[in-house]
Amino acid sequence: RFTQERAKLELKLKSCEKELKEVSMKNELSESKLAELTVRLERELQEAKTIIEQNVHFRDAGDGRATGMDVPVTWHSHESNVRALLWQLAELVPELSQALSTLHTYAEQRVRLLLTGAICGLDPQLAQGPLQVFAQHLHGNVAYLQPIEEAYQAYFDTICQQELYILDGGPTLSPLSAALCRYVSYLHKLLPYVALSLRAGASSPTSEVKCHELRAKLGHVVNRVVVKFDKMSRYLLLLSTKGCEPGSKTCRCAGYLAVVGKLVGITKCLWEDFEDVKRQLSSLMLFEHELPTVSLEAKTTDDCLVSSLASVANSCKKLSRALEAKVLLSKEAYQCRGFSAHTKPPLCKSHLGTHAALLRQRGAAYLRTCQLYTKSPECVPYGIAIENSGALQSHVENKESFAQQLESLKNKVWKLEEEKEHWMLEWQLLQAKYERQAKDMLPVSGLSQGEGDGHDGQLIVDHFKARVKEMVRQNQLADSKAVYYYSECKALQKRLHLAEQQQLELEKQLQDKQLSLQQLRDEMRSTAHSYEDQLSTMSEHLASMNEKLTQQKDEIDALRHSSSSTKGFGKKLKPK
Q: Where is the Protein phosphatase 1 regulatory subunit 21 C-terminal domain (predicted)?
């Protein structure tokens, strides 16, 4: 027993020694790597200090005005997010504007139907003047929505031209803020007419208590929507107002990021309010459509109005999610060289000076001019190369076909020249014959008859010239038709060749399918044969088992009979 324990301990000791050697080797490697890393870091630190001493003469970090001309250090991830957000908003702002314009248009149609008495049995004479003014105001919605699109496009172009993707607010947002303020004033102008139209619909004799409640809720939600638009315009106005000068010590833009957060929250609330407006309006429409006085045109207009509200809510939802996904301004949007993150007083992170964008543009222009002198050879994309190869091959084929056509046309021209010479000879013969006949007839006939014969000869010559021209024209027409038929036959021949190739491929596929079908049939036959053999063997086995069972049953019956006979014989012998 002690011997076994000693052997186990010796094995354990050997394994521990082996592990210790491995750990010591790893420790030596780590120490060597640490020494190399320390040497390299010290060398890099010394190089950095040398560069700073040679290039940076002074750095006054205590005064913000000393670093006012520094180009900011921007973060690439922040610029990528801002660029993606700007492109998204370039699609979402026009979409929201178009949806709001559609909503105002359908609201105008509903107001005009309300004037005609097609909704809720309203008296046409009730509030005719204000409702007509309401319809006219709704008709002019494009004059207030179009400037918003144009102002955002101008802001987008300005940011792209500066090539510095930082949403720092400032005067570049002023046109967009002014356009949104005009639209908000337009909504405030529409708000009393909305309340008047709701009261006019509620004053109809077919209205009930539920309808009054739905109209009151709808008016309250519409008021909330206008309030949200008003808040959005005010936040944009705050963003467009420049609170301090760049590089100054004092900063009055402490709430800039808070304003941006409020703006993002307002877009989400606006989406929720439009969803609430859609629900209330749908409930009101369902209640009104049950009334017998509502026309089919009014029902169609109401459905379009609800669908336009849904599109507006969807656009607001997209806008809200885009703003929530891409942060407009982070606390580390940019930083100035020479200042640490814990500088007191804190740096202004809301605005950049005009010099930053100017220096960025100058740097980009310089790099573009450098690229002009060191322009690498352009590489043709693979798709364009494939298209060019196909076009070149088709041009080669066309060249061959054109060469063949040129050869055939040369042959035809040669034939035409031969026919021309033939007809020229014919014409000369006819002219000589005519002159001979004219000389023979000259002594007999008078001067007037000779002049008449000369005139007739000229007619004959003109006739034959016309016939020659007609035959040449017909020959040219036949040649052109022959060229056309030749090209068409060439195309048909190519199509026939392709069809034959396709037919060969299909025949090959058919043969493969037939072979596979034959293999499957052979496999099915072999499987059926094997199953039949198995069934026959099973049936033979069952027959032999039945025979064995019958034999065993006979033996058991015989044993039972013999046992019963022995018992009866014992009973007979017992009384004796």
A: 455-563
